[in-house]
């Protein structure tokens, strides 16, 4: 696996590149977050195919969420999710106290208003990964104090 | 909802018969998967083994964690083909499918048009037939 700095720096460039095009009128400003999320979605689909190639078959939804929190998160961000909570009715909250894509940004409230731009791709990553495992979901993220953040996954029952 | 991402057969005459067999075997695959969920035995393999034998053919199945089903129909008279050979053929298919998934020109859900995938399948079929 490549050094994690590679993905981190590339991701940052992606976000700023996309917003620069928005300023120049090439892309509507509101669409940037959607574009980042969609990018993450496609990446998540491919990644999950690779990562689950040699794993045993998943038992149920919780099994899949645990996989995302442990193996998937470790392979992508070199650490596990710190806390997984669920209401057992299709809502999961994944808490990362030191989210790798935010640690270089701030250690508190500075730059908080920009945090959502740097979380969109990862939301898509989770949504894409779950989608390829047969789970339709909506993933959102919130930050109150960097670099801790929470990803909320809402499973859509078909 | 099941639709084929890729289907190849040899010989190519009577191709419809093979299409039909694969289609009916999907029910057996779904049965096996749901049975696994409730089974006491912790059978969590991706390889499903022999789905059902007919007079002339044997049908094997394999389902990935991403719910993609691979079905192989082999001539019954081919007794030389061992179970572990079938397993390794499914592994090759799974590995190639993973590569297809990571190809930026592939849109998930589309029919597979990768030449690399085609040639892998061709070489596998040549080895068997």
TrEMBL record, chain A:
InterPro entries linked to this entry: NO_sig/Golgi_transp_ligand-bd, TRAPP_component, TRAPPC6/Trs33
SUPFAM superfamilies the UniProt entry points to: Ligand-binding domain in the NO signalling and Golgi transport (SSF111126)
Entry superkingdom: Eukaryota
Localization of this protein: Golgi apparatus, cis-Golgi network
Broad class of where this protein is predominantly found: Golgi
Family per similarity comment: Belongs to the TRAPP small subunits family. BET3 subfamily.
Name the UniProt record assigns to this protein: Trafficking protein particle complex subunit 6B
UniProtKB/TrEMBL annotation, chain B:
Subcellular location(s) of the protein: Cytoplasm, Perinuclear region; Endoplasmic reticulum; Golgi apparatus
Keywords annotated in UniProt: Cytoplasm, Endoplasmic reticulum, ER-Golgi transport, Golgi apparatus, Transport
Alphabetical list of Pfam families matching this protein: Sedlin_N (PF04628)
Claim: Glycoprotein is one of the keywords in the record: no
Main location: cytoplasm
GO biological process terms, semicolon-separated: endoplasmic reticulum to Golgi vesicle-mediated transport
Highest taxon listed in the record's lineage: Eukaryota
Example of a GO cellular component annotation carried by this entry: endoplasmic reticulum
Family to which this protein belongs: Belongs to the TRAPP small subunits family. Sedlin subfamily.
Protein name per Swiss-Prot or TrEMBL: Trafficking protein particle complex subunit 2-like protein
Source organism per UniProt: Lynx canadensis (Canada lynx)
